[in-house]
């Protein structure tokens, strides 16, 4: 998956209810349904999906979703705690008292989804550290494109959390001119699962319609001509954040616009951010690739962010392996710690979290969404090996092979794939370690306690973390 499955599921539940409100069933005009959404792992058999059949899914999460329906009001959508966390900030929700659910020993927390929050992407506000070389490269590619000979597409690519949105923001606000000529920036962002595939067009037209105005229907219909007309008067830069999330219709029209500008010799340039694994475009493009920050720069960034949270500087050492060189992760942990301290001021700088090195820091939901999507993209054997390595930190390849009952050859090949993907690294004496501690924590949390115990029992050594 891509980390937005829970959001799509809740959106689908809300849309079912809206569809029934708009077009009631003639035979049962008062018909209302209840929807339950639960998030977790399930066993899916897709072999049944032929000749008009459907795949079969089973597991505790399926049963929980079915039970939750009972606690949704007619025409409502009920969410479990995991779904609530996954869509927090994206879906408006109302908590109800915990309920008893068959098969669960303790009461289950439930939320009712009440609507979709309006997408208002916040401007990245963290300090820009360790990216000056990337900023200079992006600025040079932009100037080359505006002058004419360079590709009219500049892509800032990197994994989620690498700070590509922050780099785009810095480029926009520090490059008002190229060769002394004023540049008109038209910025937009591509939200997940938009109601309208061309929704990002509104942002691109905002410099023409005014900050608070909504473009008219004729303006939206002729948006490409409007931008081409503007490019005949001055250089235009289209800044598109998260282009890899854009609908195919918007990407096609955007490509057509840039191609026309290139053919007509107009100074119109697309500068976009995208995931490193996304197929952003088949057209010629200059790329600026963002890797992880080095440990020293990561430490400087975390030290700059911690004062905002009211937390002790002692947390720097604990946050470094969790951040893994990703500025976006650092911001997510800082926000989480700041909110936690605001909710309970007694925790700010206190020993309950800052001084207790044995208590793991929770993974922020925005980071968890990214990490779980990364896990889901692995094939079955690679995911099994990675989860075994998470349960047995510092294990060697033979120990992991013994834990899973695999041959050493099969384990060596799978670990080679995980190492090539940058997920695992071999330390001294062949001990394997995670490059991303947040990934290890999420992988461990996915496994039931009984499975973790069984993996540990199959090895001769005990996890030392």
From TrEMBL:
Q: Which SUPFAM superfamilies match?
A: Nucleotide cyclase, P-loop containing nucleoside triphosphate hydrolases, Winged helix' DNA-binding domain
Q: What is this protein called?
A: Adenylyl cyclase class-3/4/guanylyl cyclase
Single GO BP term: cyclic nucleotide biosynthetic process
Q: Which residues form a coiled coil?
A: none
- Domain Orc1-like AAA ATPase, by residue range, is 127-282
The GO terms describing molecular function are:
adenylate cyclase activity; ATP binding
What GO CC terms are in its UniProt record? cytoplasm
**In its keyword annotation, does this UniProt entry include Nucleotide-binding?**
yes
The record, for InterPro entries, names: A/G_cyclase, AAA_16, Nucleotide_cyclase, P-loop_NTPase, WH_DNA-bd_sf
Per the record, the domain of life is Bacteria
**What keywords tag this UniProt record?**
ATP-binding, Nucleotide-binding
